[in-house]
Structures are given as C-alpha cells and as structure tokens.
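Page 47, continued from p. 46.
Same chain as before, 125 aa.
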Amino acid sequence: MSKNPIVPYILIFALGIGLIFFMSIYGLDQKEEIAGQGEEGKTEEAEGAADSAEFDAEAVAQGKCIGCHGGDLTGGMGPALAGTKLSKDEIKTIIKEGAEGGMPGGLITDDAELDAMADYILSLK
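Result:
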C-alpha cells in the first residue's frame, strides 16, 4: 500500500486556514488596543513636528522628489530641478497643484513650506 502524496499538502492548507482564522479573531479582540497605539504614535509625531519648527526642504526633496527627479535632482523620469528656469511662483504652483505628465499635486500645502521648498529648488545648481 502506498501513501497518498497529496495528504501533506491538504494538512498544511488546513493548518494555514486555521491559523488565518485564529489570527483574525485574535486581531478583533485587540483592535481597540491597536487603535490606541496608532493614536499615541500620531500624538508623539505631532509633538516632534511642533518641536522642530524649521522645515527641512532638502530632507523632503530626498524623500519625495528623488524617485522621479533623480538622486541629485538633475532629472530622471521627471525634469531636472537643478538649474530650473521656472520662477518661484511657478515652482510653488506645480508643487501645490501638480503638473501634466505625472507630477502629483498636494505634496506640500503649507505656504511657508512651499516657499522654503521653492527657495531650495532655486538654490540647486
């Protein structure tokens, strides 16, 4: 008599389904605690943001812009930011509202931060 080769796969499948079911029930029991932890993290982030009143345009550019504009912001999928011929107001409008060709709007909405980012982009050579 030979063993059926499918039996181990059925057992693993059944154990996996059981584990998923157990984890979902466990997660439902813990949802209030998990939600509370998320709110605490947001509060700490807000306090940290209030402590650092200065906007770091270079850090924001490295986090949000290099994916399309290249690591040194001299161009990639998007146009070069370094050495741009755009005016400060044009740069602020593009950052706030986006541009045709894939530039999303709303990356920065605060006027002071828009000014700082536009100044940073204009300082790039």
